[in-house]
Design a protein that fits this description.
Pfam family, one: DUF3298
InterPro entries: DUF3298, PdaC, PdaC/RsiV-like_sf
Order of helices and strands: EEEHHHEEEEHHEEEH
Helix content: 10-25%
Distance between the termini: 66 Å
Protein name: DUF3298 domain-containing protein
Radius of gyration: 22 Å
Number of strands: 10
Shape: flat
Largest sheet: 7 strands, mixed
């Protein structure tokens, strides 16, 4: 069998463009939006360096900030996003630096199982469980009005019946370079009311009339449906995203619940930054 060394692919696609996000289909670059550039970092490593054997495949497709109002703004934003999207150990890294380290860490972890793989292959002749796949997509979902909402979509498979996927969101207020959380948006003691609003909206989306009906659709205890930090902004509201196993079984899939500002306006702080979006 043909032997190959570690295959490393780092492809930089250098087309600058303004992100086409969910609620703005214009290709124009606004003064209050961030210019992003597409970057793909990928690596494939076959066990024992043999292309006929299982492999670890890692692909990161990113839209990274490359320009904002001041020359240094884009790098400052990247360094805010790196620990949020990849973990605290990547504090101080640009998104490209962090992504390269993430790819390397997955490949190195895979190399450590080579002795186990050889042993299992000799014993059973089965190798399918040693296929690893990691696919990440990072891109802004809202990029205007001095807000930058960054979405991280991940799909991972390291053996077993099925892989795991998730979508995480991080919103940065570009007027002060801080991440926006629930405490920056809502009045204290509003969590129970928000939970009720989210539950009613979900029932409306699924066309059911009672919370018990959600249980039949694979949802867990309806008390688990509450406002979390996993949300992104739109021009007209806030969208919460719940990944598999958070409020429902895997088969039910991901749940998104968008609440218009007009339904929650009375619970939003008077000085909340999101009031810039409320007309």
């Amino acid at each position: 069998m043909k032997k190959v060394s570690l295959l490393s692919i780092i492809a930089l696609i250098s087309c600058l463009y303004s992100c086409n996000f969910k609620n703005n289909h214009s290709n124009e670059t606004n003064a209050d939006s961030v210019v992003v550039e597409k970057l793909v970092i990928a690596d494939t490593y076959h066990l024992s360096g043999d292309t006929a054997k299982p492999a670890c495949k890692v692909v990161l497709t990113m839209e990274i900030p490359v320009k904002y109002k001041q020359d240094s703004d884009y790098l400052h934003l990247q360094k805010i996003l790196s620990p949020l999207t990849f973990g605290d150990e990547y504090t101080g890294d640009s998104l490209k630096q962090a992504a390269q380290k993430v790819v390397e860490s997955h490949v190195n972890a895979y190399k450590e199982i080579e002795p186990e793989f050889e042993k299992e292959l000799a014993k059973s002749g089965e190798a399918y469980s040693f296929e690893w796949d990691f696919d990440y997509t990072l891109s802004p979902v809202y990029n205007r009005n001095d807000f930058f909402c960054y979405g991280v979509s991940s799909s991972e498979y390291t053996g077993g019946a099925h892989g795991m996927y998730s979508n995480r969101y991080y919103t940065i207020d570009l007027s002060n370079w801080k991440r926006i959380g629930l405490d920056d948006i809502f009045q204290p003691d509003s969590s129970d009311t928000l939970s009720s609003i989210l539950l009613n909206r979900l029932m409306k989306q699924l066309n059911v009339s009672s919370p018990d009906s959600l249980l039949e659709l694979g949802y867990f205890d309806t008390e688990d449906i509450m406002a979390t930090e996993n949300f992104y902004l739109t021009d007209t509201g806030i969208c919460w995203v719940y990944n598999p196993y958070e409020i429902a079984c895997y088969a039910t899939g991901q749940t998104s619940i968008e609440i218009p500002f007009k339904e929650i306006d009375s619970y939003i702080l008077p000085d909340s930054p999101v009031r810039r979006l409320i007309k």
